[in-house]
Amino acid sequence: MNIAQILEKMIGFSDGNIHDIEHFMKVWTYAKTIGELEKLDRDTQYILEVAAITHDIACPLCREKYGNTNGKYQEEEGEPLVREFLANTGMTKEQISRVAYLVSHHHTLQNIDGIDYQILIEADYLVNAAESGYSRENIGNFIGKIMRTESGKRIARSVFGIA
What we know:
By secondary structure, this protein is mainly α. The chain is about 70% helix and about 0% strand. The protein has one domain (about 5-160): Hypothetical protein af1432 (Orthogonal Bundle).
């Protein structure tokens, strides 16, 4: 499946939850943009974009099962859901495994291994910071301590007006 088909499938999976749909669409947009600016190879860009679209696939289940969408719950519940979701998309086992890994680690800021993982963390943070009204201090700390891509840093500074 191409990215548009994955997006359409995820929109259907979201069952009309506008917040969830808008959230993953924004994360996908930032991830796509940062990935392209960082000149990722085609396969890494594709994996990044699929991971960005599906990163919160476990949120509906977590709301039902735990009453919240705590990041650790999302990571635990997300891997089997995303594997099933991607099973008949034409993706290789290796691609699905990498997306599942990214989805099951997208709230883990330690031991980030890979540019796709780094960009997913950055893109999700940008959207969460805007949606949740993070402080300028929090955002500045994230830019300085966690962000590694020059494109992500530039975008974060522009979006949040941080020099």
